[in-house]
Amino acid sequence: MIRMRHNDETPNEVNDINVTPFIDVVLVLLIIFMVAAPLSTVNIPVNLPGSTEKTTPSPTNPVFLTLKTDQTLSIGENKINKDQLAAALDTATKGNKNEAIFLRADKKVDYESLISVMDQLRSAGYLKVALVNLAKEGATP
């Protein structure tokens, strides 16, 4: 019986995963996101249209806060003064600060007045504010 030793001729298996293609793909995606991210934050002045999307269901007893063109406020059908807003909301929501307030404003109300009312809501502790609009033609039910 003859034995031959050929230690340096035995093939070695490589069990490592080649991650080079993976790194290439990740770097290309990183470059794409770095280029595309500033494009999504461009401020362009536009006239915002009304909503044609389907309306979301409202709660059973929503609290509607209405701002009219003469800057008067109403909760439901009751007129209130601006300085009584927090107390009137506490009464209407029974003190529940997590309840959504549905803010309706006439389209002729200036933006500054609307933001002022929203600031009052925030300072009163009501952070869930929904802006109400009318559905335009073509809205899906």
Automatic annotation (TrEMBL):
Family, per entry: Belongs to the ExbD/TolR family.
Membrane topology, from the record: Single-pass type II membrane protein
Record keyword Repressor present: no
Organism name: Commensalibacter papalotli (ex Servin-Garciduenas et al. 2014)
GO biological process, one term: protein transport
Keywords: Cell inner membrane, Cell membrane, Membrane, Protein transport, Transmembrane, Transmembrane helix, Transport
Subunit structure and binding partners: The accessory proteins ExbB and ExbD seem to form a complex with TonB.
Function: Involved in the TonB-dependent energy-dependent transport of various receptor-bound substrates.
Transmembrane feature ranges: 21-39
Domain of life: Bacteria
InterPro entries: ExbD, TonB_ExbD_1
One GO cellular component term noted in the UniProt record for this chain: plasma membrane
Main subcellular localisation: membrane
A Pfam family matched in the record: ExbD
Protein name: Biopolymer transport protein ExbD
NCBIfam families (alphabetical): ExbD_1
UniProt key word Cell inner membrane: yes
GO MF annotations, alphabetized: transmembrane transporter activity
Compartments (UniProt record): Cell inner membrane; Cell membrane
